[in-house]
Amino acid sequence: MPDHTSRRTSQRLATAALVLPLAASPAFAQDQAIVLDTIDVQAQSNQGLVQDGYVPISGRIGAKSETPIVDIPQSISIVTQKQLEDLNPQAVDQAVSYVPGVTTGAFGFQPRFDAFYLRGFSVTYNGLYRDGLRQFASPNGQFRSETYGLEAIEVLKGPSGTLYGASSPGGIVNLVTKKPTEQPFREVMVEGGTYDRIQGNMDLSGPLNDEGTVLYRLTGVLRDSGTEMDAVPDDRVYIAPAITFKPTDDTTLTVLGEYMNASTGGSTFYYFDGTEVLDIPEPDPSYNEFSQDQWRVGYEFEHRFNETFSVFSNSRYAAVDVNEEYSGIATLTPRTHYAGLAQDNMNTFVTDNFLKAEFDTGIASHTFLVGAAYNWVDYDNYLGYGTLPRDGAPPVATWNESQTQQQFGIYANDEIEIDNFIINLGTRYDWLHADTDTAAAAPVEQNDEEWTYRAALSYRTPWGLVPYVSYGTTFTPNVGTLITGAPAKPTSATQVEGGVKYAIPGYNALVTASVYQIDMTDGVVFDASTGINEQVQQDMLNTGFEIEAVASLTQGLSLTASYGYNNIEIQEGARDTEGNKLNGVPFHQAAIFADYTFQKGFAAGLGGGLGVRYLGESYGDDYNIIKNDARTFVDAALHYDFDYRTPKLEGVRLQVNATNLFDERGTICADGYCYKDPGRTIIGSLRYRF
Predict the structure, then answer these.
(1) Do strands 364-386 and 185-193 pair parallel, antiparallel, or not at all (unpaired)?
(2) Any idea where the TonB-dependent receptor plug domain is (predicted)?
(3) pLDDT per residue over 616-675, tens digit each?
């Protein structure tokens, strides 16, 4: 009888070395084997993610176990470390702006939150994850993410409740923290750019002892910057220490920490008179501050008992405090202002623990997971309204709401390989308990429980194509209350998806195409069409299509190209919007970014990148009265690695990035309110690795 466990292990190790699953397939005869070029595979840490340039090779996203990306029966996009370095994004929404299915910029110039959509559904509150654990968000208390502290961003499309619990119907965006490296790594960087931006970065890592059993990493950012609006800074202090203990090859414990203080504006909008957005900033500079303190501490632990059993445990405690002082124009002539105060305090604890077993039953090879997860969040929200301090009646917090929410889930998933077929079957059961107390109503106790499911089938063809079909569901409690003061119902969603993945033989390239339908019930959305930014619940149906290609070739060329289509219909919503299209999400989106570096000759080391992002027409409100025109943005980069021609300057890189190069600043409307697109930014950086 063949040893299927050994075949699985060998296959995944081969994939990490870029020997594609095609060559490991039993159906592929020895005399047909494809010999691939030798490519330098990059793995920034020992936490399971393997990437080569712009191409993700394998990882744990979508399986919770090291798996080739082509074998995962769900659409996945990964913004790799190389992409992050080439784009040099200053926020998460910039980093994912070339990912198909992701819609950024729906609220124009908006530096306060990491706000964007995935497959037409917001991920701001329920779809952001950090290192595989949910990153909670309350109405104003949302954790910010420093992109310099990330080694990759993983985007798993569609409902994923069975493995990850609460998540957006559109999927999850997992932020992968930089973790200690086994080889010494040291980097310092200075940046400067538009709006008097000055920033310093450092990233230090490596072993702390001769045996290499204790590793460290220390990442930091210090930034002082303005923005296109005088009353809105973009200042930041960020420090993220990490330490890994690896006493044996079978045991790893990584402890992760972070502290960040960020300061921007409480209001970041331009005046909208109901018909057009004027080039007049809303906030009064004397009262417009959004200050945020956040910190987290957690661990990742894994231990392999033997060839069959392994255990994994991840936990994190995190807290965020927000003080938002905002102002806006009440009347234009004469110019008068209103003012408001919002304070959020949120504490969270999340943990996910599972046992993995790899074994055989006859001709089938299994990777079986069984686990338990627990999420806890406690938040307090204080609101107040008034006038500017100089007018004598500054806002005082008079409204309060608080909520404590606990969710416990148990789950199991079996990945079964039979020859070239891969079958995934999983289920999860979650219990929710929440207590909500508001100034508008008596305390409310909420209890819900729900099953979620996962079923998928993939097939490795002899030509390298891997077609798949999948079905998944999610059950997501919502933090916060509706306009009535009552807690929102949990959101549930189902997705049916079919697609194909193709790791092109002989090239470091991956193509993914998929069609899908997502049916969401009781989603929480915002509606500002009445003049009050209120939360309401809707049922929606999305039918869509995506295609993405990523490649990094040995000649110095890397590229990512994508197209996405979303058609989202409101099945049930507020104030007779049934049958309309969801606002803020374009029907068509396309993007391409290519970066090339000269490898030889006089220009060796010189390179540049050019990107184009197209966002098609969309509606600006759920009544489908306001319509957004199509928009096109161009991004560019120019860089030079000095060590190509001057060995003494090894590790020195000069780079300039321009976002929205041609300063296209149209009007974009969402939730019944209109904004201005963010203008052009140019950032120059000088990096030294040693």
Answers:
(1) unpaired
(2) 70-172
(3) 999 999 999 999 999 999 999 999 999 988 889 999 999 999 999 999 999 999 988 999
Cis check for the bond before 2: say yes or no (omega within 30 of 0): no
For 318, phi then psi, to 5°, come to -145, 155
Q: Is the Cβ–Cβ distance between 87 and 541 less than 8 Å?
A: no
14-34 pLDDT, tens digit per residue, is 333 332 332 333 333 333 333
Tokens matching residue 57: 């090779």
What's the pLDDT at 11? 38
DSSP assignment letter at 14: H
Q: Which amino acid is at 401?
A: E
Looking at the predicted structure, is the pLDDT value of residue 45 above 70? no
The model carries a pTM of 0.92
Write out pLDDT tens, residues 448-462: 999 999 999 999 999
Between CA 142 and CA 147, with CA 143 as vertex, the angle to 5 degrees is: 130
SS (H, E, C) 85-137: HHHCCCCHHHHCCCCCCEECCCCCCCCCCCCCEECCEECCCCCEEECCEECCE
The answer to whether 45 and 151 are in contact (CB under 8 A) is yes
Give the pLDDT confidence score for residue 478 in this predicted structure. Answer: 80
Work out whether the CA dihedral 157, 162, 164, 168 comes out positive or negative. Answer: positive
Report the C-alpha gap between 172 and 161 in whole angstroms: 10
Rounded to whole angstroms, how far apart are CA atoms 592 and 424? 32
pLDDT the model gives residue 119: 97
Q: Tokens at residue 319, please?
A: 């807290």
- The CATH number of whichever domain residue 639 belongs to comes to 2.40.170.20
> Other C-beta atoms within 10 Å of 21: how many?
20
Selected residue with higher pLDDT from 22 and 411: 411
> % helix / strand / coil in the chain, to the nearest 5?
5, 60, 35
Cα 119 from Cα 519, distance rounded (Å): 12
Q: Does the CA dihedral 303-136-536-483 come out positive or negative? A: positive
Domain count, the chain: 1
